[in-house]
């Protein structure tokens, strides 16, 4: 949610900032801007994409210090004026910001009373005016930023430059990520390593409350009380190539297609053929502790939450521990009862979704034991948790989650196997699940080969104004995620219901204009699902069935048949054709597949 890039060094900053912003565009893409310092501040900002900004940044934009921003609007509509950076009235200070300043109105009123003239509707502009005042009474830009931030309530990742100090940039973090990149006689900062990996793999994550001063020859970090802090440098193993489309038309298709490999990576080194258990080195729990939990509570947002529902089902089935999933945003606001014998699991691809992070912090404050299932190594949620499982799925760039969703479900299967095998899951069932997990990558390849069929079906159904998705028990989270994929990237309205709930209301919607995608695994509920198909067809509804064998043409207009695995693991495979269906529906409708309207990938605000 909003991307920030900063550079200080011997090269011209502008091309580096633009390149970095392009990499961060998944975080927000309604407007963008850059400012460089070279005998005064030179700024360009536009409503639109980073490419629109690049078109208006002149070649004469020289200077080795600069900051840039790509925006997802919160305060004030997307416009040239509301785009970041924001300057102080005297054009001495420039600020880019990710997050929300909660007391912006109050600060703005005070600053206006003091003579400040605001140009934008943003909360960020109060920061540039505030810092322009504190800088006059401070010995350093760092001190000026620290003093200004003491008056600010809210969340921020910020980068600040001062035209009178052309050799340094100051960044600060509270709730919104900032990562420093260490180069050869040059320093970078960004909201995400994606913007840095072309230049350096050596990174340092800032903690909440920290401020960093970056100069070409190094950096210093400080706590909010001005004490210098010691930081650990991490080497990131994601490469620049991971952020390219790799010859695919869209990141989304690339990421769907990568799943045989990404699932293999999530499984790598984690299956034990001797005891038929999963080895999850990051859990930081011994067998006795692992046995002591009586409940599992899973939290996450969006697709992460739906993968958590698949996870809860897996844990109940394999470990026989009561488990359920809840949106992290709901959980954190309802003053949850936190119990010592509950294992909490937070899911996040990015590791920085604010609602999930805040829920983890609330849990920690109440003494809860929290595991993270996270893709981004070293991210805020990963660091906040007591232990966890990394997905190793590589960076996910497209706003809609696909490979991270699948790898999260696979990580839950590993966790469920682990919890089950220290309890009552028999070695034979443990082996069955291990073998099933090993089959997944090849079976995903088989499903990907169904793409031509799914493309045709997507074209056929994409014309519908609205679609229903139904599933029972194991199939229900699959239906929910299928509906989510379709609505977020194709803008076709889609609803997901438990199949048995149809008759309690939504059946009234069914008719020729509202086709249904039905998830019909070959499990003990097959007959019940077939009855539901009959009920839909009897009301004139069209049915696209996704399951393990074609059904009577009287029950479904179209059937997508996917390979069968173990029944507990089948939801993982059944989700994949729905990704391809949504992708091709979005393409058929001419949507902006990787950057759907109004959305952002990392939602770092409440
Ligand atoms: C946003 C994205 C979703 C994603 C959700 C959670 O809403 O658009 O695709 O599922 O955030 O993201 P996380 O990084 O926490 O998994």
Description:
- By secondary structure, the chain is α/β, with parallel strands linked by helices.
- The strands form 5 sheets. The protein has an 8-stranded antiparallel sheet with strand order 3-2-4-1-10-9-11-15, covered by helices on one side. A 7-stranded antiparallel sheet has the order 5-6-7-8-12-13-14, with helices on one face. Strands 19-18-20-21-22 form a 5-stranded parallel sheet, sandwiched between helices.
- It starts with a strand and ends in an 18-residue tail after the last helix.
- The mean pLDDT is 95.
- The structure holds 6-O-phosphono-alpha-D-glucopyranose (G6P).
- 6-O-phosphono-alpha-D-glucopyranose (G6P) binds next to α9.
Write a concise synopsis of the structure shown.
35% of the residues lie in helices and 22% in strands. The protein is an alpha/beta fold. The longest helix is centred in the C-terminal third of the chain and has 22 residues, at 427-448.
Topology:
Blueprint: E1 3-8, H1 13-24, E2 31-37, E3 41-47, H2 50-56, E4 65-71, E5 86-87, E6 93-98, H3 104-113, H4 125-134, H5 141-149, E7 156-162, E8 169-174, E9 179-182, E10 187-190, E11 202-205, E12 211-215, E13 218-222, E14 228-229, E15 234-235, H6 251-257, H7 259-267, E16 271-272, E17 277-278, H8 287-292, E18 295-300, H9 303-319, E19 323-327, H10 328-333, E20 342-348, H11 354-365, E21 369-374, H12 380-384, E22 387-390, H13 403-421, H14 427-448, H15 451-461, E23 466-471, H16 475-490, E24 493-498, E25 516-520, H17 526-538, E26 543-547, E27 558-561, H18 570-588
Parallel strand pairs: 18-19, 18-20, 20-21, 21-22, 23-24, 23-25, 25-26, 26-27
Antiparallel strand pairs: 1-4, 1-10, 2-3, 2-4, 5-6, 6-7, 7-8, 8-12, 9-10, 9-11, 11-15, 12-13, 13-14, 16-17
Helix pairs in contact: 3-4, 4-5, 7-13, 7-14, 9-13, 9-16, 13-14, 14-18, 15-18, 16-18
């Amino acid at each position: 949610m909003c991307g920030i890039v900063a550079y200080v060094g011997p090269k011209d900053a502008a091309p580096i900032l633009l390149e970095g912003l392009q990499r961060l565009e998944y975080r927000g893409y309604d407007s963008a801007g850059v400012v460089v310092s070279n005998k005064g501040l030179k700024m360009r900002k536009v409503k639109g994409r980073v490419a629109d900004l690049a078109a208006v940044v002149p070649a004469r934009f020289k200077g080795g210090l600069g900051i840039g921003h790509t925006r997802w609007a919160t305060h004030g509509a997307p416009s040239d004026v509301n785009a970041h950076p924001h300057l102080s009235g005297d054009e001495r200070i420039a600020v880019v910001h990710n997050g929300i300043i909660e007391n912006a109105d109050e600060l703005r009123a005070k600053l206006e009373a003091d003579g400040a003239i605001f140009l934008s509707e943003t909360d960020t502009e109060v920061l540039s005016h505030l810092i322009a005042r504190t800088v006059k009474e401070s010995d350093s830009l760092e001190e000026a930023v620290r003093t200004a931030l003491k008056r600010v309530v809210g969340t921020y990742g910020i980068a600040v430059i001062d035209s009178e100090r052309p050799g340094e940039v100051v960044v600060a973090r509270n709730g919104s990520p900032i990562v420093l990149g260490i180069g050869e006689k040059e320093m970078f900062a960004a909201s995400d390593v994606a913007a840095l990996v072309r230049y350096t793999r050596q990174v340092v994550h800032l903690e909440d409350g920290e401020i960093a001063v970056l100069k070409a020859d190094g950096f210093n970090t400080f706590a909010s009380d001005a004490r210098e802090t010691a930081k650990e440098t991490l080497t990131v193993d994601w490469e620049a190539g991971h952020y390219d489309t790799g010859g695919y038309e869209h990141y989304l298709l690339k990421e769907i297609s990568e799943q045989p490999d990404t699932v293999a990576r999530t499984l790598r080194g984690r299956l034990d053929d001797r005891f038929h258990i999963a080895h999850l080195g990051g859990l930081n729990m011994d067998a006795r502790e692992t046995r002591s939990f009586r409940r599992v509570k899973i939290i996450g947002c969006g697709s992460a939450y739906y993968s958590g529902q698949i996870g809860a089902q897996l844990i109940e089935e394999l470990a026989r521990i009561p488990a359920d999933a809840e949106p992290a945003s709901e959980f954190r606001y309802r003053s949850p009862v936190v119990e010592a014998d509950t294992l909490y699991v937070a899911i996040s691809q990015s590791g920085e979704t604010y609602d999930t992070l805040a829920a983890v912090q609330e849990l920690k404050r109440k003494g809860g034991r929290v595991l993270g299932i996270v893709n981004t190594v070293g991210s805020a949620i990963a660091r906040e948790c007591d232990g966890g499982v990394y997905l190793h799925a590589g960076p996910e760039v497209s706003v809609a989650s696909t490979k991270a969703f699948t790898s999260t479900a696979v990580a839950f299967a590993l966790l469920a196997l682990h919890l089950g095998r220290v309890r009552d899951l028999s070695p034979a069932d443990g082996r069955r699940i291990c073998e099933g997990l090993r089959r997944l990558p090849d079976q995903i390849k088989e499903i990907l080969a169904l793409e031509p069929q799914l493309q045709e079906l997507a074209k056929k159904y994409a014309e519908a104004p609205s679609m229903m998705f139904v599933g029972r028990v194991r199939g229900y989270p699959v239906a929910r995620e299928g509906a989510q994929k379709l609505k977020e990237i194709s803008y076709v309205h889609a609803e997901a219901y438990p199949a048995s709930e149809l008759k309690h209301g939504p059946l009234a919607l069914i008719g020729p204009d509202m086709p249904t995608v039905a998830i019909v695994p070959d499990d003990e509920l097959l007959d019940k699902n077939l009855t539901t198909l009959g009920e839909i067809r009897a009301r004139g509804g069209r049915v696209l069935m996704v399951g393990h064998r074609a059904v009577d043409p009287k029950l479904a207009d179209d059937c997508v048949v996917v390979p069968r695995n173990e029944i507990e693991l089948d939801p993982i495979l059944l989700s994949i054709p729905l990704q391809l269906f949504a992708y091709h529906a979005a393409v058929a409708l001419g949507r902006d597949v990787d950057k759907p309207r109004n959305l952002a990938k990392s939602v770092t605000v409440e």
